[in-house]
Amino acid sequence: MNPNDTTSFWKSPMTWVIAVIFLAGFGGIAVAISASGGDDGPPETAFAEVLGDSLPPFGESPDPAIGTTAPTISAQTVDGERLQIDADGTARVYGFFAHWCPVCQSELPEVVSWLDDTDLPADVEVVAISTAIDSGRANYPPSEWFAEEGFTGTVLLDSDDSDLASGFGLPAFPYWVVVDGDGTVVNRVSGALDRPAFDALLASAS
Predict the structure, then answer these.
(1) Which of 202, 181, 188 shows the shortest CA–CA distance to 64?
(2) Within 73-175, where are the H helices?
(3) pLDDT, tens only, 172-182
(4) Are 142 and 44 in contact (CB under 8 A)?
(5) Could you tell me which residues come within 8 angstroms of residue 190 by beta carbon, excluding any fewer than 6 positions away?
(6) What is the pTM of this model?
(7) Which of 98, 71, 90, 89 lies closest to 162 in space, CA to CA?
(8) How would DSSP label each residue in 17-79?
């Protein structure tokens, strides 16, 4: 075959076989890169677990979790810092949020506004937990949502299986659990809250 005869080259069946194999392999590489997510943004879930006894599901009255010891949290922040949170003298108000939950979407800016207007005691921290992550649902990715709403406190990433939410007995979104400085559960509540309810959460932490 004339090496300058490109027409004959592309008429060769073997040429097309090689081309198809090459394109299929290239496509597989592209799919793999796309699935990995690359380095375009922070992770939205991470390894997370509760150490110790999980809290019973919320919903019974009186709440059986009140007065019990909260499990230790081992999780990663949205900024990539690894934390283990246990009874260290700081009371914590944990808020569990799902990015796709309409009530959560309405409540987070209210939380930010409340925190802007409230002087938290030095021994009380408000911690948001991003859970029930679903890239196929609205308001994804949650890391951008928390940043856009101006939440400046700690944001913990739950696991793919929402182990933190399960370990704290989450029934629905949003969900709040208050743990005092000794690691004792002092309050749990679920659903939309207003400012007086936020104030009550803070008061129970003190």
Answers:
(1) 188
(2) 102-116, 142-149, 163-167
(3) 999 999 999 99
(4) yes
(5) 58, 170, 171, 172, 173, 174, 175, 176
(6) 0.81
(7) 98
(8) HHHHHHHHHHHHHHHHHHHH-TTSS--S----EEESPPPPPBTBSS-TTTTSBPPEEEEEETT
